[in-house]
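Run folding on both entries below.
>entry_1
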Amino acid sequence: MIRIESKRNKFTYNIYHIVKAFYPGEDVEQKVDGQQESLVTLYMPGDSSFSVFSEEIGLPSVQDPDEQRLQEEKWAVTRRVYQYLAEVNGGGLAWGILTGVRPTKLIMQKIEAGIGREEILRSFQEEDFVSPEKAELAYEIACREHELLSRLDCAEGFSLYVGIPFCPSVCSYCSFSSSPIDQWRDRVDGYLDALVKEIRALGKMAAGRKPDTVYIGGGTPTTLEPEQLDRLLSTITECFDISRALEFTIEAGRPDSITEEKLRVIRKYPVTRISVNPQTMQQKTLDLVGRRHTVKDVVNAFQMARKLGFDNINMDLIAGLPGENAEDMRDTLSRVKELGPDSLTVHALAIKRAAKFGQEGRTAELHSEISQMVEEASRCARSMSLQPYYLYRQKNIAGNFENVGYAEVDKAGIYNILIMEEKQTILAAGAGASTKILLREPIKEKNGKGVGIIRIENVKNITEYISRIDEMIERKGEWLWR
């Protein structure tokens, strides 16, 4: 058990996540006490402790600090705690003190402010303790994102997301809002009725506007039967003018849900990008994590899609799955390279509480194997002429690493960039789908802060989504295009 006692609530978020990154297997307890003398004290295993005082970080003690002073204090304390933990553990974290999911967003803001490359890299490395390799990677990706987004009118355009919350089975590491299709066969048409109603309503709200990207995700969209998939795609193309869309993605995902008939239905529509996601090419691991398909199924599904003319296929992999080491990742990458996907997304395992692994109390170990896997994946992707184009991080991610998307030139997943950088309104339909509305003018909250994005969440429960669909639609209409 590690205990964090802090003088201000402002300190707790960053310090908690940094401590968890260094000690993923430890329980961490937090306590805020405004009367204590130290700004932060860590009580470590083995009866050792470490305290940070105002004088130590070079800031005079004041009774009622303003917001700017609180920010200075927060980052000064965070840096001091990080330095202590790095010293105790014999080395730091790849992303230093950055705990957020969007490190490239920080760089994008600096680029747009006219700050040069050298200053950006210096700040990341010296002030945030990010490793030189990760700082360079983030800068490279931010520049590529900046160039791709320059092709869009982000202020006036929008993207459309449609969620299908069903999977052939639920993977042990998955925390997404998805349910086994076998338990919902007799309710899928009812779900589609509600989903079609929401899509039609969004189409009317967006009348006169054309989406830049369309993304059908989940879950696994190809758990739908061919006629259901046809109904969904025909509704989208009827309700939205996608003549100028830069991409139209269907996350086919699980190979055990892909059939030739379903792929032929998809080919009837202007879909430009699909996914065939193995996560690993090790059969022992597929069996362990609850994916009911074989490595051969992955190969067959991919080759079938190629034969039918799909020329932009993504594959997802996960580094750090239970029982796997760097040699397993090398073997997986070798098999994937033989197939030759047009893009490759490499995730570091993140164990969430909602996932089966999280409920079992498993933790993602901080060890060198994860680092080797991530590095091997990067080298393999570049050897396939795939360049990194987007990056994000998650809480409880193995080794405090990151998820990176690699793609051929002009085959990057633009929706993936938009969802991370929050540069455009995203209309979302389906159970658990999250609409993000970019406001023309920021609105002020009670604390005086300006808010430029409104998030509207659909309910995750499928039954409630069906019964409350009118409410889901009405909530979006209150904010859209304000």
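>entry_2
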Amino acid sequence: MLYQNTYKGKRVFLTGDTGFKGSWMAAWLIEMGAEVVGYALPPKTEQDNFVTTKLAQKYKHIDGDIRDYDGLKKAIDGSKADILFHLAAQPLVIASYADPLETYSTNVMGTANVLEAMRKTSIRAAVMITTDKCYQNNEWVYGYRENDRLGGKDPYSNSKACAELVTQSFRDSFFEKEGNCLVASARAGNVIGGGDWADMRIVPDLFRAQRNQTSLTIRNPNATRPWQHVLEPVSGYLKLGAALLAGDQKAATGWNVGPYQNNHTSVRELIDQFQLNLKQRGEGIIDVHYPELLNQPHEANLLKLDISKAIAELDWHPRLDMAGTVEFTAQGYLDEFAGGDIYAKRVAQLKMFCEA
């Protein structure tokens, strides 16, 4: 399995392990033989990937809030971790409009708490996860590079830009001077895959409609995004973490871990590809509506990532094209609908991904 030689026997502290990406990452780490300690809020529903895969039975999970510095510090100290992956966040644009204070307190002060809590501990490497939306979006037709300006109009995007700046400040002010831990950040694209049931997300909404045979309303069909299966960015985080653990000081910076350019497609095109995939499987397709919705909260129409730096300097490459991304994602949801041992099905997909 990819990266097993690096992580087997390593102690890993993982924030946000009850979330979508965090639960997939926890499974991958477990399968490599890592000793995982997870720290996150409890899962929101019984449908969450953390619950359906019964991850709580497979490693040590601590219910906690990254805004609780004392609880977080105690958990990190007790873990005696070699490496930390910070995935805990308020991850939704629309939710950030509804509660901007929670978004900023979680994504900015929560990140600062993680960085401060891991100083002068056993941790030798840390990967702080943000988002492609951390860039000041000028609706450019080319992908954003790591040295482009950070920004963001909505509270979520802006809070993630702030998290990047907080990470950079801690790296420059403390970690480089103290010399005991290398810290990097990673910016993924729009992540999809089985196990994501968050509200106000296109693919979960599509599969809710497919399962219930109801119609689907799309609010921004022409928006272009860098779509990628969840295992793509997780593989990037693991690759980056391996470089940091190996002492590569040049890796202690910001990185884009998005998809290839042909995975940058519109929402309408993404929906069409899922409809085709479901039809080819003999599954029911969905009645989709694209009404003109007025007075919607601002969301960028065009967003692309440039991953040439990760390819050239980390030797990290995406493994799935758009057809593979849709195939893996659809299979992940249909695996859930079929029931049975969901964890075993996730591991089977993980092994297929590593062999792709």
